[in-house]
Design goal:
By secondary structure, this protein is of the alpha+beta class. It contains five helices and eleven strands; from the N terminus they run βαββαβαβαββββαββ. The two termini are 18 Å apart. Pfam families: DUF2344.
């Protein structure tokens, strides 16, 4: 038995796939590639694959990670070539490596996401208004977003999940915002929710409903270092 870790990008073409549909697409490609993927035992065996962190519908990602168990070892370039033949447009296999069987699971290890949000500016927006909104948000000790779902309303303190200050750069008629968001055992916050707070509470002059959101990094972070899942020894 061997375990391989894959780094994948999820492009604009498939950003409206749900996480479940995305996983099904990947696993269909694995089956068609004829790779010796391992399956669980029991009455209803399933493919032994695991993902790092689900994305919201509509969000693209430069880096996604997936672990896959194989029943036999193949050369990495063989695995990559076979999978690339079967992956649809919008999913790109960037690289892969073998990892130790006892390597911590992606879902448990990955705890930091870095997002880029590209958002149209409202008419008349200027640097002063943008910086004032960012400064107010960054200096706040606490700020609440109310998440509504079929389960009801839930108040979330957005700031407890922010790992760095929100920053932004004007690029023509758009604003590019950078957010670092922690993922914890008790939950997290979505980048679109942070954007909603920036606009509705702090007056950031952008059209929040037209944001293009792209996850730039997924990291394993602690007090001493920040590494990608591919850097795990």
């Amino acid at each position: 038995m061997a375990k391989v870790r894959l780094e994948i990008s999820k492009g604009d073409e498939i950003r409206f796939l749900s996480h479940l549909d995305y996983a099904r697409t990947i696993e269909r490609a694995v089956r068609r590639s004829k790779l010796p993927v391992a399956y669980s035992e029991g009455f209803n065996p399933h493919m032994k694959v695991a993902y790092a962190s689900a994305l919201s519908v509509g969000v693209a990602s430069r880096v996604e990670y997936m672990d896959m168990d194989l029943s036999e070892t193949l050369e990495p370039q063989v695995i990559k070539a076979r999978l690339e033949e079967q992956l649809p447009e919008g999913i790109v296999l960037r690289r892969l490596k073998y990892i130790a069987d006892r390597t911590p699971a992606l879902m448990a290890a990955v705890n930091l996401s870095v997002f880029s949000l590209t958002v149209p500016l409202v008419d008349g927006a200027d640097n002063a208004a943008i910086q004032a909104a960012l400064d107010a948000f960054n200096s706040a000790q606490s700020t609440i977003y109310v998440r509504e779902s079929p389960k009801g309303r839930r108040e979330i303190d957005v700031k407890q999940y922010m790992d760095c200050e929100a920053t932004a750069v004007m690029k023509g008629a758009e604003l590019e915002i950078r957010l670092c968001i922690r993922m914890t055992p008790t939950g997290s916050v979505k980048p679109g929710e942070v954007l909603a707070v920036l606009v509705d509470t702090y007056g950031l002059p952008v059209k929040k409903d037209s944001a293009f959101i792209d996850r730039q990094e997924l990291l394993i972070a602690d007090d001493e270092r920040r590494i990608t899942p591919m850097e795990v020894v």
